[in-house]
Write a structure and sequence with these properties.
The complex is a heterodimer of chains A (117) and B (115). Chain A has 117 residues and is mainly β. In chain A, strands 2, 4, 5, 6, 9, 10 and 11 form a seven-stranded mixed sheet that branches. A four-stranded antiparallel sheet of chain A has the order 1-3-8-7, with no helix packed on it. The termini of chain A are far apart. Chain B contains no helices and twelve strands. The mean pLDDT of chain B is 91. Classes of the chains: A mainly beta (117), B mainly beta (115). Chains A and B meet through strand 5, strand 9 and strand 10 of A and strand 5, strand 6 and strand 11 of B.
Chain lengths: 117, 115
C-alpha cells in the first residue's frame, strides 16, 4: 500500500519556539494532504486540508497564523507550529489519499508527538 | 453535516470470543465508510472500507463490517478475538458528493481482549 512518512516522530521544545513537522508521500503523489490533531484518549480532529500549490483550507476554530501549512510539492506538506505553548502539546498526524489508485482510503503517517515545555 | 458516533468508549471481550465494535453515521448522500486501528503512539492503520457493493465487507486481520443503510450503521466484527487485537478503533465517514478525501472520525473505541 501507499506509504506516508512523518518526521520528526517526537519533538520537545521550549515555549515560544516554532516547530516544523514534515509529511511525505513516499510512493505516490498527493495533491491533497490532511493534518489531524489528537489529544490523549480522544479522537482525531481535522485541522486543515493541505493543497499542493495553493493555500490550505482550515477547519473552523483552527488558527491559521498559529498552524502554518505549506504544500510546496506533490510529495511534501509541512505543518509549522509557531510560537508554541504548552497547550499546543499534542499528537499531530498527517494523511494523504492516493487519487491515482482511487482506492478511497486515507494513508496515515506515524504521527508526531509535540511536547512544549 | 457529516458525523460519526461510536457509542462505546471501551469494549471488553475474552480471547476467542466474537467481538463487535459499534458505529453509526450521518451523511448527506451516499457514504464512504472506513475502519482504522491505532496502536499506542502510532498512526492509523486501515482495516476496511465500504463504498458500494456487498454490504458485508471483509478486511485486514480477519475483521469484517456490515453496512446497514436503514440503521445507518457500520459495525466492526471479528468471529474470534485475539489479545493482539487490543487497540483503539476508529470509524470514519466521507461523503461521495463533493468528496475531497476528508474523513470525519468517531470518538474511538478501545478494544480490550483478555486472555
Amino acid at each position: 500500500g501507499a506509504v506516508v512518512s512523518q518526521h520528526p516522530s517526537w519533538v520537545i521544545c521550549k515555549s515560544g519556539t516554532s516547530v516544523k513537522i514534515e509529511c511525505r508521500s513516499l510512493d505516490f503523489q498527493a495533491t491533497t494532504m490532511f493534518w489531524y490533531r489528537q489529544f490523549p484518549k480522544q479522537s482525531l480532529m481535522l485541522m486543515a486540508t493541505s493543497n499542493e500549490g495553493s493555500k490550505a483550507t482550515y477547519e473552523q476554530g483552527v488558527e491559521k497564523d498559529k498552524f502554518l501549512i505549506n504544500h510546496a510539492s506533490l510529495t511534501l506538506s509541512t505543518l509549522t507550529v509557531t510560537s508554541a505553548h504548552p497547550e499546543d502539546s499534542s499528537f499531530y498526524i498527517c494523511s494523504a489519499r492516493d487519487f491515482a489508485r482511487n482506492t478511497g482510503e486515507l494513508f496515515f503517517g506515524e504521527g508526531s508527538r509535540l511536547t512544549v515545555l | 453535516a457529516q458525523s460519526v458516533a461510536q457509542p462505546e468508549d471501551q469494549v471488553n471481550v475474552a480471547e476467542g470470543n466474537p467481538l463487535t465494535v459499534k458505529c453509526t453515521y450521518s451523511v448527506s448522500g451516499n457514504p464512504y465508510l472506513f475502519w482504522y486501528v491505532q496502536y499506542p503512539n502510532r498512526g492509523l492503520q486501515f482495516l476496511l472500507k465500504y463504498i458500494t457493493g456487498d454490504n458485508l465487507v471483509k478486511g485486514s486481520y480477519g475483521f469484517e463490517a456490515e453496512f446497514n443503510k436503514s440503521q445507518t450503521s457500520f459495525h466492526l466484527k471479528k468471529p474470534s478475538a485475539l489479545v493482539s487485537d487490543s487497540a483503539l478503533y476508529f470509524c470514519a465517514v466521507s461523503s461521495l458528493s463533493g468528496n475531497t478525501g476528508k474523513l470525519i472520525f468517531g470518538q474511538g473505541t478501545t478494544l480490550q481482549v483478555k486472555p
